[in-house]
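Quick one, tokens below. Sequence please?
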């Protein structure tokens, strides 16, 4: 009797090889091959709230649950693709969100948040990009305010006036004051 119960419970969960992923609608669905010659299509994937992913399906696998023991009523767990860019060797307590290109948000050592981007990092507030960083520059359309010092190794330019190369008008010898910088 226990063997029959064990097999009945075991048959509720299966593993499948993902042959396709549809991420166009409100629900992501997968097409999977669960056993030799047994395929299912349009199986809904249940992602945890707040997380979304579209795993490269070449080599992806997933587990499926049969609702009520009905093999026609399947639900899939989010597909995994261990062959593509998985970040390993994490220390206990660390976490990482990553993609197939190796980009990641790495919560390291309980003290460091490391963000690795392939080309560009954008931060948006209410749909508007407020910070845009790439290998050549950091851009923000916002006013910048600081209570600390600002140090620059290169030149600083305000409008057309260079901090390092500007000249002054009305220069006088002695203790008098010069005119404003000249553009």
């Amino acid at each position: 009797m226990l063997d029959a119960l064990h097999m009945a419970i075991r048959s509720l969960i299966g593993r499948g090889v993902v042959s396709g992923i549809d991420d166009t609608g409100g629900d992501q669905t997968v097409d999977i091959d669960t056993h030799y010659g047994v395929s299912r299509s349009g199986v809904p994937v249940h992602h945890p709230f707040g997380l979304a992913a579209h795993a490269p399906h070449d080599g992806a696998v997933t587990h499926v649950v049969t609702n009520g023991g009905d093999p026609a009523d399947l639900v899939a767990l989010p597909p995994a693709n261990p062959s593509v860019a998985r970040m390993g060797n994490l220390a206990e307590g660390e976490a990482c969100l990553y993609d197939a290109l190796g980009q990641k948000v790495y919560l390291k050592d309980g003290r460091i948040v490391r963000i690795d981007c392939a080309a560009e990092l954008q931060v948006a507030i209410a749909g508007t990009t407020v910070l845009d960083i790439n290998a050549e520059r950091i851009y923000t359309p916002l006013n910048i305010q600081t209570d600390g010092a600002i140090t620059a190794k290169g030149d600083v330019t305000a409008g057309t006036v260079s901090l390092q190369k500007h000249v002054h008008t009305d220069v006088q010898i002695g203790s008098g004051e010069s005119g404003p910088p000249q553009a």
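The radius of gyration is 29 Å. DSSP finds one helix and 15 strands in the chain.
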